Amino acid sequence: MKVKAAADFLPIVAEIDALGRRHEPEASADPGPTAAAAWQEITSGGWLGIGLEVGPLELAEAARAWGRYLIPAPFLTSVLACRWRESAEQAAEGRATTCAIATSRGPMAPFAAWPEIEIWGQGEARNADEAGVGAGISNAHPAPAGNTAPEDFAPSLALGPCNAASDLDDRARQELAALWAAEAIGGAEQVLRRSVQYAKQREAYGHLIGSYQAVAHLLAEMHRDAEFGWSGVVWAAQCDGDAIQAAQAAIKLATSVIRGGIQVHGGIGFTWELGLHRYLRHSIAVAELVRGLTPKAADDAAPGSLGGPR
Amino acid sequence: MILSFEDDAVGGYRAKAAAWLAEHVPASWARRFEMSEDERVAVRREWERTLWEGGYAGISWPVEAGGQGLGPIEEVVFFQEAGRAHAPEELNVIGKHVAGPSIVVNGTPEQHRKYLPAILRGDEIWCEGYSEPGAGSDLASVQTIAERDGDNYRVYGQKIWTSNAHAADRCWLLARTSRELPRHHNLSMFLLDMHQDGIMVKPIRQITGESHFDEVFFDGAVVSRTDLVGEEHEGWRLATLRGQRAGRQVIAGALRRYMIIAEWLDTLRHCVRGTASAARQQELATRASLLSWHVTRATDLLASDENWIGSTTVLQMWWSELMQQITECGLDQDCLEHQSYWRNLHLEALAATIYGGTAQIQRNVVASRVLGLPRTG
């Protein structure tokens, strides 16, 4: 059992963080051009291959760094596709891949309308015996549903409808859930940082708002939730049985941190221009996707089993 | 050697501990709810001795002090397995996790000989003489005074909320040793014999009707100068742990609560009826698992001395509120068989957000020490 990423992977995480910072979209600008520039850098730099020889916890650290900047590009799913196929070639080609997930609105894929994107399971041989195992399995090959425009709720995910969900095995579901949860926690930590910074600068009634216990305690709770959220990611990345449940718990905590951040900022936090809403939208959408990764079997599992480290 | 959770040695230690626990956890502990407080204390006292005999007392104490010479990771692993095995709660928490480790570091050779073996064997149970009616969260306001009297000190004053004072043989006592020196420079730490004249222990009846803690009145109780820990007026430093040992104490505290929480959830599972309640119970179980994972992660950070304060300072907030949420859920099930169990635990759990620094103090600590926010007004 591991509780942190290997130290020799951390320089890669730092590079991803730097890449994200370079291309972070402005809150009220069209994120399209910056996403295209980021993607160009990702593919030309061979970054899609980072998952080929590392464990899920290392990848989760990378997702955490990526999640800070909300760049609308299919980085994480493409990294996972190269990893699942063990294909350095695909990484070198810089092929964009996404996964279609069963949601209450039908199968949806992040960045379904991205140019030349491949949806996982599209065109691959499918084993009819496996049909019915996992979420949203059908024998159809997933493909974007016509010319439907992506949803505008969470631009950082650009969810688009598909005709079928990707057929993901247990390991793929687990890794996807863990990475999406890590991405959400990365975003939550960014919101926490911004909120603490704001509380140290903004004055009300002649004092810094961070000196008021009501605000300081809310920030302390946000820190607690971000900390436990990351522990949930560590759990999700490593435990076969309850990985999705752990990822869901982490995303829920991330969402709570982000909501707290909007509250700390007060009226300005509620504005479009400040952009905190983008993190909230992202984590809400990610929660819906991870719900779609839950195996049906989970409903029948013994309730309340404790998933402690072993 | 500092072990990591990744090392094979940890797996081996875990398996060995689990096997030992399976053989040694007293069967009578399963019936503790039918026991009186005195009977429960007797079982827990015996368990302390069993732990010693099995080589599980002072896991992270140095070998030269009689401990096992292992690290915080082994300690965490043992606690996790003890929780799974439904082992009795430790009785000598103050002896093994507060007074003992401090004596190891700050005590004289004579104090080592006199106290450490008895703590590890479970022969002497310790209580902690910190809080007073006017000094709870504001510990530096302690008024109990130890006055020099030849080679001894005589202690006058009152402590309150002293857990297990009625069962204790020794007290880890914080008292003033100067009326003139300023706050934080006027306190000393003593190792006080509880079996003597001049000490009156008066149980405090809690909202549960039980008495787990006491008021302790000192009227001239004697403590030898040789039982002063460190130097005179060094008490504040000894009482307010900083660094690794503080982190270990916080983690050990969280693990003890995790053991209790795991057991409560076991009971809750039998009470739950209906989908909505099952979902609520699952949510609580997930929060308990998060606690376990978080403790593991915090321990690893602590063992490698990496930025662990941010991870340890949030533990009490999490477990104290989780304990209350579980008992609330238990009450709401209206399970006839466990009604009185949940009623009592619900009342008991209200203490969790008060002792050891209230929930509000915990938040203040995170706000100032971790987030660097300006002092709260």
Mean model confidence by pLDDT of chain A: 88
Number of DSSP helices of chain B? 12
Number of strands of chain B: 8
Strand order of the largest sheet of chain B: 1-4-5-8
Number of discrete domains of chain A: 2
- Structural class assignment of chain B: alpha+beta
Q: What general outline of chain B do the C-alpha atoms trace? A: globular
- Shape-level CATH architecture of the largest domain in chain B: Up-down Bundle
Distance between the termini of chain B: 45 Å
What characterizes the major β-sheet of chain A?
Answer: 3 strands, antiparallel
Oligomer: heterodimer
Most extensive contact: A-B, 39 and 48 residues
Account of the 3D structure:
- The complex is a heterodimer of chains A (310) and B (377).
- Helix content of chain A is 50%, strand content 6%.
- Chain A has a 3-stranded antiparallel beta sheet with strand order 2-3-5, covered by helices on one side. Chain A has a two-stranded parallel ribbon with strand order 1-4. Chain A has a two-stranded antiparallel sheet with strand order 6-7.
- Chain A starts with 9 loop residues before the first helix and ends in a 10-residue tail after the last helix.
- Chain A is built from 10 helices and 7 strands.
- Chain A is mainly alpha-helical and 310 residues long.
- Chain A has 2 domains: 7-161, no CATH class; 187-300, Butyryl-CoA Dehydrogenase, subunit A, domain 3.
- Chain A is globular and about 60 Å long.
- In chain A, helix 1 runs antiparallel to helix 2, helix 6 (170-199) packs parallel to helix 8 (243-265) and helix 7 (213-238) runs antiparallel to helix 8 (243-265).
- Chain B is of the alpha+beta class.
- Chain B folds into 3 domains: 8-91, no CATH class; 126-238, Beta Barrel (Butyryl-CoA Dehydrogenase, subunit A, domain 2), CATH 2.40.110.10; 244-370, Butyryl-CoA Dehydrogenase, subunit A, domain 3.
- Chain B is built from 12 helices and 8 strands.
- Chain B has a 4-stranded mixed beta sheet. In chain B, strands 2-3-7-6 form a 4-stranded antiparallel beta sheet, with no helix packed on it.
- In chain B, helix 3 (72-84) packs parallel to helix 7, helix 4 (93-106) packs antiparallel against helix 5 and helix 10 (315-332) packs antiparallel against helix 11.
- The radius of gyration of chain B is 21 Å and the shape is globular.
- Chain B starts with 7 loop residues before the first helix and ends in a 7-residue tail after the last helix.
- The mean pLDDT of chain B is 91.
- Classes of the chains: A mainly alpha (310), B alpha+beta (377).
